[in-house]
Amino acid sequence: MARGADERDRTQAIIVGTIAYYLGKKADEYHSHRWTVYVRGLDGEDLSHCVESVEFALHPSFDEPTRVLTQAPYEVTETGWGEFDIGVKITFSSDCGEARTVTTTTPLKLFPSAEEIARHGPQTTKKPLIKERYEEIVFHECDGGFYKRMKSHAWKRAPKSAHDDAWSSFKDKPELVGIYAAREVTKERIKILEQQLEVLESIDANA
């Protein structure tokens, strides 16, 4: 990759997942848990500088199974008893370049596994089950306006969510941060290797 093209690349860390609370005495045959599917920034970062909308595709048994949110918090809350995969489509600003839309799925998990119970303790009405993953979106050769906005963007906290306290105490958070840090180091190493390759190619061309 040419150095000039690489300078137009920008990245954005996001987290996609679900959080589920057992309803306890309020549970019935069809409503055992209250759950939320969400897209959020790492450490509560506001994503409005680059995200235009987030669309969630729920199970067709729900009323209005397709939900579109155009402002944070990007989350949908429902109650139910069954687990299923939720479709997630993130649409970024129109000037972000080629990768304007990212489509993925995230599993709705209501019942903890034996391993999760061993790590986090049993699920209660106050202790939720969180299932989320880290994603890093790479925008290649961004348009000028988007590139400048991403480069000059100062960290800002997203609008308050009812789940902020649960996310801040989530025990897998250090692992997510570690993944992010490792990827940043990898990107820097790749840049150095690309520079070294350009030097070698220049030497070969002049030989």
TrEMBL record:
Q: Does the keyword Transcription apply?
A: yes
Task: Report the residue ranges that make up the YEATS domain in this protein.
Answer: 4-153
InterPro entries in alphabetical order:
YEAST_sf, YEATS, YEATS_dom
Superkingdom, taxonomy of origin? Eukaryota
Cellular component annotations (GO), alphabetically ordered: nucleus
Pfam families in alphabetical order: YEATS
Q: Name one GO biological process term.
A: regulation of DNA-templated transcription
Chief subcellular location: nucleus
Q: Does the keyword Membrane apply?
A: no
- Subcellular localization, per the record? Nucleus
Task: For this UniProt record, give its keywords in alphabetical order, as a comma-separated list.
Answer: Nucleus, Transcription, Transcription regulation
Q: What PANTHER family has UniProt attached to this entry?
A: PROTEIN AF-9 HOMOLOG
Q: What is this protein called?
A: YEATS domain-containing protein
Which organism's genome codes for this protein? Ostreococcus sp. 'lucimarinus'
